[in-house]
Amino acid sequence: MADDTVGSHRSLPGSPHFDARGRAVMVDVGGKPETERVAVARGAITLSTEAFAAVTSGTAAKGDVLGVARIAGIGGAKRTSDLIPLCHPLLLTSVEVRFRLDEPRVEVETVVVCTGPTGVEMEALCAVGAALLTIYDMTKAYGRGHIISDIRLVSKSGGRSGHFRREGEQPWLESKTR
Q: What does pTM read for this prediction?
């Protein structure tokens, strides 16, 4: 049996998630400067007419769907390193979860901020996913044909790679924190 403790555990240049032997490793961010990192992600869920009406009127049998989805999104951002094996646990300074209602779609936008040596893109994406899955869970009594779609990174700033903004994305109202 091969000894996994032998050999370099440093990542290869250009392949930060693999070591010299091709094994998956957590990226070493120890030497990276701490900078403010901000990521914005979005996604949507298309609901049945009945489910959308229950969400918007606040009459869903399971309660305040958007309120619970907001809390789930915040929790999803905070627990990203528990879900994605090679993500670093981060000390987040802010997580916002916002909604846009455009019948029959509920759109979710998350804004995640931290100051640290690595970005928060995965945290923003996990927050969107958790919020959307919560909406699905809380409205499935109205039908299970809801469609979760379009989860994507909209923008990110901070770090060595600088700023990214997805072409064609229009900003929502400015964040309270940024």
A: 0.85
Instruction: Cis check for the bond before 104: say yes or no (omega within 30 of 0).
Output: yes
Domain CATH for 95: 3.30.70.640
**What does the alpha-carbon distance between residue 48 and residue 103 come to, in Å, rounded to a whole number?**
9
Residue 17 lies in a domain: no
- The answer, yes or no, to whether residue 9 has pLDDT greater than 60, is no
Of 3, 19, 137, 150, the active-site residue reads 137
pLDDT(128) > 90: yes
Taking the C-alpha atoms of residue 131 and residue 26, their distance in angstroms, rounded to an integer, is: 27
**Alpha-carbon distance 107 to 121, whole Å?**
18
Whether 137 is catalytic is yes
- Strand spans (E) along 47-104: 92-102
- What's the token pair of residue 55? 């969400």
| CA atoms within 13 Å, Cβ hemisphere of 11 | 14
